[in-house]
Amino acid sequence: MFATYLIGLREGLEATLVVSILVAFLVKSERRDRLPQVWAGVGLAVALSVVFGSLIQYTSTSLLRTSESREFFEAVTSVAAVVFVTWMIFWMRKAARSIAGELRGKLTEALAVGSLAVAGMAFLAVVREGLETALIFYAAAESVAGGTGAGSLFALIGGIATAVVIGFGLYRSALKINLSRFFTWTGALLILVAAGILKYGVHDFQEAGVLPGLNDQAFDISATLDPNAWYGALLAGMFNITAAPTVLELIAWVAYAVPVLVLFLRKPAQPTRPATTPVPPAATPAANASAESAAEPTATPAEPAPAAVDAAAVPSPRA
């Protein structure tokens, strides 16, 4: 259940930050009359995400008749969830610094068009997070014992509720956290969760007959890693680490987790400022003009973007 809680916390906080930026911009711009349209767009995005998640669950439990088709469907959704998780964490690290300005710019354009445009802009800004949450939640919950039961659902809701509380505290300037460090740690944990989801997807492909090697175990350490013990259940529930994986499951887990973690945790290279040759002061204005015309212009490199969302990206209505 920790995996689904982490998904709700991470995705929920991203969505909450987006909503906070939109609301704070309208409050500062003295356009509170457009707040109902923003909340309408957010509500519609949440409703669509719930419908999408219900449709995934209904397809798996009711529309697919054979066990092979259900295993294949779960395998496909697992791979899709891994793709979305990977894209999400790297996109957030790259776009964190500019996301606030982009949202304000789009909202300014929407305000010039009308109320429907404002609602549509808020809907589009939140619905991506909601659809990702529904897909990743289904894949993560199915990869552990219990599936998408009440416990996993409550864990997801708890993560989202925690994200809303954190986001509201940031919005009201009552809470200060290092969002860059937060997204780095949660991103690393989500990579391990995604590795477990991919491992589960490979197992489903094997059970569906798409991939071979269902009975080819890489090792069996059940005597050391008891699946019935609390630590065995914790590792299986968080990262789908089991005592007797197949060879392909182990290869998939390692081949994904190791390089993606290295790329994610690697610090971006800092740009080096080019050396400039100082121009000696001239004695006369004419000599100054001659020296300036002879000197080659040098470009100042842009400041490096932070690894994740900066707390300053969430404007406070008190400013």
The span between the termini is 39 Å
Strand content: under 5%
The secondary-structure class comes to mainly alpha
Unreliable spans: 282-314
Mean pLDDT: 80
The tally of strands reads 0
- What is the gyration radius calculated from CA atoms? 25 Å
Shape: elongated
Order of helices and strands: HHHHHHHHH
Portion of residues within helices: 55-70%
How is the biggest beta sheet arranged?
Answer: none
Number of H- or I-type helical stretches: 9
List the helices and strands and how they pair.
Elements: H1 2-28, H2 35-63, H3 67-113, H4 115-142, H5 150-171, H6 179-207, H7 230-239, H8 247-265, H9 285-294
Helix pairs in contact: 1-3, 1-4, 1-5, 1-6, 2-4, 3-4, 3-6, 6-8
